[in-house]
Task: inverse folding
């Protein structure tokens, strides 16, 4: 989703204004650890493209979602949601090798249509 969302935000780069008191450094705080989430059968970002970078970053964690689809925004997983909430609220990373499932299988008879 990176390129897509970055392109949608592109108009902000040319917005005709400046912050009155913008921070230009120094940047003393270390970057927070990275939390990545990827499905095993993602059509846009193959699973291995999530595994490799998180393996090389010291403080990165990957939550593997055994399932289909591009994001857990469209294919929800309450398991992933729990990891994300803990990460955002406290910075806590899930354990290494964390694996979650999707709440509903794609095209399952019990899958609810939007607005249902």
Result:
């Amino acid at each position: 989703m990176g390129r897509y969302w970055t392109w949608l935000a592109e108009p902000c780069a040319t917005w005709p204004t400046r912050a009155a008191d913008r921070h230009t450094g120094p940047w003393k705080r270390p970057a927070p650890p990275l939390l990545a989430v990827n499905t095993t059968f993602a059509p846009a970002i193959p699973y291995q493209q999530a595994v490799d970078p998180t393996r090389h970053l010291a403080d990165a964690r990957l939550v593997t979602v055994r399932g289909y689809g591009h994001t857990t925004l469209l294919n929800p997983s309450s398991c992933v949601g729990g990891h994300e909430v803990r990460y955002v609220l406290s910075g806590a990373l899930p354990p290494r090798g964390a694996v979650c499932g999707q709440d509903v299988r794609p095209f399952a008879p019990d899958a609810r249509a939007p607005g249902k």
Observations:
- The beta strands are 34-41, 60-68, 99-101.
- The radius of gyration is 18 Å.
